Fold each of these.
Amino acid sequence: MKVGALEQRDTAALMAKDAPWKLYRPRQRWTLLAILFLVSTSNYLDRNVVSVLLEPIKREFHVSDTMLGLLGGLAFALFYATLGLPVARWADRGNRRTVIAMALTAWSITTAACGLAQSFAQLLLARVGVGAGEAGAISPAHSLLVDYFPPERRATAMGVFTSAAMAGLLLGIGGGSYLATAYGWRTAFILCGLPGLLLALIVRVFISEPRERLGFPAVPSGVSPVREMLRTLWRKSSYRYALVGCCLYFFMAYGALIFMPSFYVRVLHVSLEEMGKAYGAVSAAAALIGTLGGGYLADRLARRDPRWLAWLPAIACAASGPIYIFALACNSFHAVLGISFWCGILLNGGLPPVFAAIHEVCGSARRATAIAIVFFAASLFGNGLGPVVAGVLSDALSARYGVNGLRYTMQILMLVLPVTGAAFYWFGRAMPADREP
């Protein structure tokens, strides 16, 4: 009886060699997705909480917006980008569950360490550690999701997974502002970081690695696999457009939007606690509606034409830029919040289809690496340079226009969004020639 069961399992594994999602029943897929959702939530919680803590950090350490941009951007992005590619290569060949569990442990410890910093330099160093840890989560998780779900369900799965940004944003901004108001910004960092250690244990015990049944990919000999992968991906014009679009998207998202809490507090004179509750809730609702709705709509449209996986984000980015500029011109907290809600739906709705579209053209053997390259470039250009550019521009304009300098800075950065939409449009145009299973 036991031998027969083993034979059936081996036969199922053989049949799933080119379709690993056949190893899992629907309930198993969604359970595994739920765990990865929690991992991503922890990722975005620890990444976003710093944005709501910038003002109390600025007051305590007496630093400029340029230094805050360095803290929120380059300090995090430098090692995030640098380690992302080698970690992804490991994930493309090895046990992705182990990669994620180790990365989660690392960024949880360093986030808690931010709360122990006694100087701004120590805080910068701890944020470097957070970036190094978070480099090992998203690309292996993407790779696993593609193995868990069949092609016709991937955009929806990516939408659910991407909506973890909503949960992380809600906890980071809402919870972070409450903790900072009640207990101080150091306690906020510590309490946001420590729960990730328990989650790392859950990942190690309960996440399934299909390769343990299907076999791990062989390591190529001869030509450097990294060099060959980069050459293959760069030949695809669709991938190049995707790379440009994602860089511009994250430049705006992490350059301008990381200062949105500061805009409410500094320019519109909203209290930190009120801002945290309202902005956190509205941002979370927009992210939830956008990511789930965008993923579902993209799956439906892509059945007719896969280019919609790129064209839907193109429309979302092109439309949201002018709306954001109008919102930032308002002097009412509730008006800005209400208009930003619709922009948030558009921008969050466009992100899951982009990743699904990248998986359509990158090829199964290069999934984690292709996503890691996107995050490498987007992190350096978006997470790294975006907040620093925003900080420098804000300092320059604030010297002349006072607190409105931050308003004008964010409006200028929103001009990047229509250009982002154009890049995604050409991504869609190039997709049919570059699609690869």
Amino acid sequence: MVVLSVAIAVALTRSGGDDRPPAEPSPAEPSPAERLGLGGLAGQRLIAGWDGAAPPRGLRLLIRSGGLAGVILFDDNIASGRRVRRTIEGLQAIKRPDGLGDPLLVMVDQEGGQVKRLPGPPEASAEVIGTRGQSYALEQGGKTARSIGGVGFNVDLAPVLDIARPGSAIEREDRAFGDQSGQVIAAGVNGFGAGLQSRGVAATAKHFPGLGAAETNTDLASQRITLSKDELRSADEQPFEAFSRRGGELVMLSLATYPAFADRPAAFSKKIVTGELRGRLGFEGVTITDGLGAAAAEEFGPRREVALAAIGAGNDLLLYSDWRAARRTAALLRKRLLTGRLSRADFEPSVARVLGLRARLIPGSG
């Protein structure tokens, strides 16, 4: 009897001395994306530009309300290095809603050659950089990051990772690092892109799954690239796979159509954005469309259809050169979220990736 009493006492001691059920685990803290209202959720899917040197009041109000994840600057926004620095500092200083205080994404197309918004590096076109090899490309990427980071840009919409096929627009414009995937990987991924990111400027690989066979720039006309899946995967996608493996921050989706995958532009195809880029290649960074004011996007359909197709395909960010178009899209997305026609659960992973990128970038870190 004594033995039995001791055994019971030991058992009670080990179990905590009572028969209460185990405590419920504390609920997990909501993530930054989960804490945002619908307007903030919609806004974190959008990048916008404007006309002229000074950002208009409507753009600044959109930022103040949390209606943009960032901005893009073009030639007419950049009068001088000192002026653009003040402009970017002013935009970053705008008070934003709780949870959105990290730096805005401030983007620029600084490829070199014909596509270059600011003076200074890169000191050659991608074609020339590619011929001079990985070390030179790495140096040029680092110099470019110091230059554009010094005035406040934290995202370069470069490197172009398209393979220059004979007769293509990319080849004529000297925007590709080479006509072989190995050369593009060495100069574009391990060189220029790595140089940008080593200095705190996020690199953007473009234009997935490869625009190197397009005869015309998609800014000017729709393009159909009739390469087979095997050709695209064994050549054109290889630099993007290398970029993904190296931890590249952003990938821009092409506006050309690839019938081997889908009968619509890549940026509007879930098979390409979600299936091919994220699923097959394992890309975990932020996806962004090419500019949705391009002819190839406008020929696809009305603005609302374009925006919903881009969101449905799985793009994290939609890129607009006109802030007013972005504002209209923000209203559309918010309304669809409110009525349940767009799922908040589907939105939050994209917004989490965008907020994560913003949190990692420091203005002027180049």
Amino acid sequence: MFIGEAFFKIVVSGFYFGENTYLKDPWNILDFVIVLFSILTWFLEIFLGTSISFVRSFRALRALRPLRVVSTNEGMKTVVDALFHSIPALSNVILIVLLIILVFSILGIMLLVG
């Protein structure tokens, strides 16, 4: 179903060249990457078998499929975009928290070593 949706969007709006094409929208890029890795995993499982270890790592990318729901819901798009735009402003807070975690982890290793 995801492959069909991506195919129809590409046919309707074009793939890359143009103003409002499929790969000009970041949400469509995410959809395309998820579909591409799903197809790649499927072919690798068929032709190489499931005993290959790097095929399992591609299976982990299937966890990104719920993010496709975000691309269809406008309200969720707004929330996720706001979260991504707030990350640079929170970089100082993240650094301070990481420093505190580092200090307490070193203290824990020193006190609880035995």
